[in-house]
Amino acid sequence: MSLFNYKTVLCFGLATLLMASCNNNEAQSSISNTVPSYKQENQNELVSTTNTVQKQAVANAPIEKNEVLASENVIDTSPKLLISSSEEYTEPCYCRSGDLFFLGKGGSELFYLEKGQKTPVSLAKSGRFSNNVAWSKNCNEIYYKEKNKDYSTTIKSINVNTKKVTSYPHLPALTQLKSLSYSDTAYFLDKKSLDIKAKYKDNEWLVIKNEEQGFYMTLISPDGKYIATHQGSRIELYGINGEYIRKIGNGIATDWSPDSKYLIGFEEEASNQHHEIGNADIYLYDISNGLKKPITQTTDALESWPSFKSKNEIVYTDMKNKGVFTKKIVNQ
Question: Side-chain half-sphere of 147: how many Cα atoms within 13 Å?
Fold first, then answer.
């Protein structure tokens, strides 16, 4: 069984560093004004604040991996198979319209499933897409990254109705595309320092300074108040102005709940003998206290890349059983 997507995740930090060193183009941003901006009014004040951000001791102690929120009937044992295929799908994501996209064929093809339909259609093919795709706010386009022959990255979008492809050559290569689903401020990793930065039109500012091994997979909350990011195996939570809030847990956070109160993600269990992924389960992370709820607890599945369809329903992939599933989750 191919472990393409898990190898991508486990090596994501290293890949980010390599991308930063390979991409020598100056990052500039140009994105649509059709989405609301979370840009601060006083950028000078924001830069001054974020330049001095330190991870101070806070009352909220870090949450360790084994601290799971005790709750009865947390796990829904009746997932619904949405799509079954010999392909290994990844990155499924619903838009508010009910349409769904996901990657398949080892990350080389982008599929689209219209609401009410049962058969996905191919939207785009590439030598390799990255695990960084997102809907536009109006649900008409899908943003994705495509690697070029010279190892540089081009950010593009494709219209699901017209199939028109648009390139964004001035958008920073390490832009976190899900931020474009909510904001016309682009959040990205600086290619040299791996600081988290933001850019709105011609204004660029520092959000969170990298003081350790670098950030990766940054997620902006739908309400524009929080940034969830990763350092090593840790999921860290910051305010949008760069203030450190808490460690959320360990694993890979992949999406925010619509009300910005929870993160959904997955954790893998590696085989010490074969250095392969033996199992993976999905967890719900409560940002108010850092505790987590198990959404799946299986021994015969590789459940990963969950995202929210609604507040109480998620979609995810199972790469061992090769399918896309939906699941009701217990009301938080």
Answer: 16
Coil, helix or strand at residue 42? coil
Q: Is the pTM of this model over 0.85?
A: no
Placement of tokens 């709940």 in the chain? 257
Tens digits of per-residue pLDDT, 247-282?
Answer: 998 889 999 999 999 999 998 765 444 434 457 889
Q: What is the largest CA-CA distance in the chain?
A: 54
CA distance 248 to 235: 5
CB 316 within 8 A of CB 305: yes
Contact 189, 3 (CB under 8 A): no
Residue 99 identity (one-letter amino acid): D
**In this structure, what are the phi and psi dihedrals at residue 180, rounded to the nearest 5 degrees?**
-75, -10
Q: Backbone phi, then psi, for 9, in 5-degree steps?
A: -65, -50
Q: Which residue has the tokens 């930090």?
A: 13
Report d(CA 117, CA 102) in Å as an integer. Answer: 15
Domain coordinates of the chain in residue numbers? Answer: 4-27+58-328
What's the CATH number for 4-27+58-328?
2.120.10.30
Nearest to 104 by CA among 116, 95, 92: 92
